[in-house]
Amino acid sequence: MAREALVIVDFQNDFTPGGALPVPDGDAIADRLNELAQDPRFDLVIATRDWHPENHGSFREQGGPWPRHCVQGTEGAELHPKLDRSKIDVIIDKGQNPDTAGYSAFENPELERILREHGIEKLTVVGLATDYCVKNTALDALRRGFQVEVDTTATKGVDVQPGDSERALEELRRAGAEIAAGSAKGAV
Ligand code: VGL
Ligand code: ZN
């Protein structure tokens, strides 16, 4: 059996209702994330955080597309309170470079280093948002030679344009990802 990691992308206050850049129903995946995080098939459970400096280029005041969100050290950048911290082995922060989008968690080289150190061959990528950070993290994982599954019972998209999340999943499928609607224990 391939050694597997669960990568929970950006399940943070600012991406859930009430936050600065809320993903519609973003908090609805909390129970499913916790269920996955305790599945024994995962040798490693990683949570990523979007972790921007004040002057990040993706913010509107800097000419970017997004409202100010996930500024380092703020409440909005904290992991969502419903996420069970006890199941998380490692937190990877990304998005610190003001000049890059920071959508992929592989922009922080620490992610690949830890995965290789643990002999991980397969990633299940879940969290927020399907059409941005989940998509880009999963595509980068495929480019680096990992097997990738995206579990759609544990992701939600921003859908700036209707259908963005569906198109992101289609792109991931074409790139070689397995798109599953709940394959682990307790699947719905
Ligand atoms: C994200 C937009 C801006 C994400 C991060 O986590 O998907 N989306 N920054
Ligand atoms: Zn961001």
Automatic annotation (TrEMBL):
<comment type="similarity">
    <text>Belongs to the isochorismatase family.</text>
</comment>
<keyword id="KW-0378">Hydrolase</keyword>
<dbReference type="InterPro" id="IPR036380">
    <property type="entry name" value="Isochorismatase-like_sf"/>
</dbReference>
<feature type="domain" description="Isochorismatase-like">
    <location>
        <begin position="5"/>
        <end position="180"/>
    </location>
</feature>
<dbReference type="InterPro" id="IPR000868">
    <property type="entry name" value="Isochorismatase-like_dom"/>
</dbReference>
<dbReference type="GO" id="GO:0046872">
    <property type="term" value="F:metal ion binding"/>
</dbReference>
<keyword id="KW-0662">Pyridine nucleotide biosynthesis</keyword>
<protein>
    <recommendedName>
        <fullName>nicotinamidase</fullName>
        <ecNumber>3.5.1.19</ecNumber>
    </recommendedName>
</protein>
<dbReference type="Pfam" id="PF00857">
    <property type="entry name" value="Isochorismatase"/>
</dbReference>
<dbReference type="GO" id="GO:0008936">
    <property type="term" value="F:nicotinamidase activity"/>
</dbReference>
<comment type="pathway">
    <text>Cofactor biosynthesis; nicotinate biosynthesis; nicotinate from nicotinamide: step 1/1.</text>
</comment>
<dbReference type="InterPro" id="IPR052347">
    <property type="entry name" value="Isochorismatase_Nicotinamidase"/>
</dbReference>
<keyword id="KW-0479">Metal-binding</keyword>
<dbReference type="GO" id="GO:0019363">
    <property type="term" value="P:pyridine nucleotide biosynthetic process"/>
</dbReference>
